[in-house]
Amino acid sequence: MKKKEIEKIPFRGGVRADKQYRNTAVVFLQDIRGESHLFVEVYENKKRELQTPWIRMVFTQKDWGLYYPDAGVWSAAGLDEERKKIGSNCKKRDNKCYMARSQGDMVWKFTGNTWERKYTTWVGALQSLIHNIKAQRVQKREDKRADRLKEREQNTPPLPKGLEDWAKKTGIGTEHFLYYKRHGRYADIACSACGQVTEAAVRSKDTYEGQFEKIIPVPQHDSVGTCPHCGATGVYKAQGKAKGVWGHGMNCFIAQRYKDDGAVIRYVEIEKIYRLDTFLDEKEIMIGAGEKMIITEIARTYLEKGKRPQTDYHKFSSYSGEFWDDCNLCGMNNISIKAAKIYPESYKELRTTFLRYSAAEMYGKHKTMYNLKEYLERYIQWPQIEMFVKMGLYHIAESIVEGYCGIIADKDAIKPECFLGIYKRWLRDLKTLQGNPDYLKVWQMEKRMGLHVTVQESIFLAESQVRQSDLEEILKYTTVAKFMHRIEQYSGCEIPDTMQEPMCGRAAGAVSGVTRTYVDYLHMRIQRGYDLHNQIFLFPRDLRLAHDQMVIETNAEEIRKREQAVSEKYPDIRKNYRGLRNQYIYEDEDYLIRPARSAEEIVAEGRILHHCVGGDSYLNKHNTGRSTILFLRSKSAPETPYITIEICGTKILQWYGIRDTKPDEIRIERHLRRYIKALKEKDQIKSVTA
User: Over the stretch 403-415, which tens digit does the pLDDT of each residue have?
Assistant: First the structure.
């Protein structure tokens, strides 16, 4: 659409129409650079508005545009919204836009619309033209896509001839099945390698003829044996357990040269199918066996210099059969390309393409199964991957390949330390660690914060997994060295001072756990307004005890509100306590069992023992009498929560200790059996006296 030239063409001016019309339209044809353009100008049917249209619509057989003179803007939208404003209608009494009959003929002739005017309006004819132009554009795009797809298929080389031989050597090709069926002292064996069924003796016979028979070991399902006919080694499969067809396979990537210096990465499934042939007479009889290698190409990714990667997918339609398409399936049925083995000849092929410096072969020595397609796509996006692989920073390369690009500090940097955002002195240690991402994060954090940490401090920060925001808060009151030494004291673990002495998993877990506890403790101190320049507050003697005290202090207000709410919501728990106490009280030389005195006490029990008895469900059941919450306490500490019991009548529904565990389970169960027996005896005495 030649917009500048169209804007220079003067407006034709509107024609004043009857008052029943809201708008009036003018139509004319104009030749621009040898191409006929249809102009449709719509004016408001007012004397002062007939000089400038509120919309000028311009059409060719291949394009259209809507120009709004007041705003001076163009639009390529359709006429769905403007149709209402124009007000054109087939029915004369409802038509709000005047257009002369001769000008309407121009619209119909230009658009080639075959509909009768009593069924549609001139706006509908223009909408039909827009629809046809859009359809032509879509068809043109589809034709170009189909041509490009066909061109890629024609230039794709055939699969390597040695692929099947390589697959046989990788494992799936060397495995054979020996199907067997025993009868008496014989066994029929069908070999998938040679396809023959052989009868072989599994036990010797004390006869003259028996001494000449070849005896084989007794076949057992999934055990290894040898075919008596061809000598192939295979796995025994009982006939009754291995009927029909079974297969297993693997996927692999194949890289090949494409056109001049491009590459095509092919994702292939290699499957081996095993077949047992049987004949059904009076009983099922084995008549043969077989195996077949099937190679199916799943996807192809074309990589060319200066072009976007294009992946084509192998699909199947019940109408047209197998075909290639340039887009994936939608939703959960999409074709996934996952990590797989790499066909060895692929690396030789890559050396003849523009990806010759991708270091894919070196990366493959570190990781035998990986997604070659993703690796090469990421290499095109981030050529620095080659540098990291050759430096031995495999974990960094792996992170970038998998899309974790947040580790990149400066994408345009050439030097590795600048690209990663760390000090140069750490590159050697990073190489020793093969690019460990935990240490990389620590050294990136060091540079961002302007610190200078030692090797020992680096190990501590990496293993503790402390976040930058938390470390910034900690460093307001102490140094990294003091923080590290305190965590060593709390955890009882010593931080090594060289990269050659890695921490064991248990020690690293202890350091990480203690650090999380300390950070949580510090945040609670800050939240409560404590002066952390006081070393007693900053580094308490007993971290666990101080943390628990801060939890209680921090949650005191919430605890008070919760206890007040349940006290008002469940008042019958306190009212019914005395009656329940007479019914359920029990004690012996070791333990005391009693019901809860109030709703607040049940909530406290659940909070201290970290289980769910303090929830509204249990409170409501106790309040209404559907069940009763009992406390089992040690007589030496009757106010210290130990075991919580839910009981209904004389039946214990459940009992738990701290964190839903059952401490000293055997002893507690024995004690509870005595308790239930005592309750039943008490009920019998009451029934007799009543």
Answer: 888 899 998 888 9
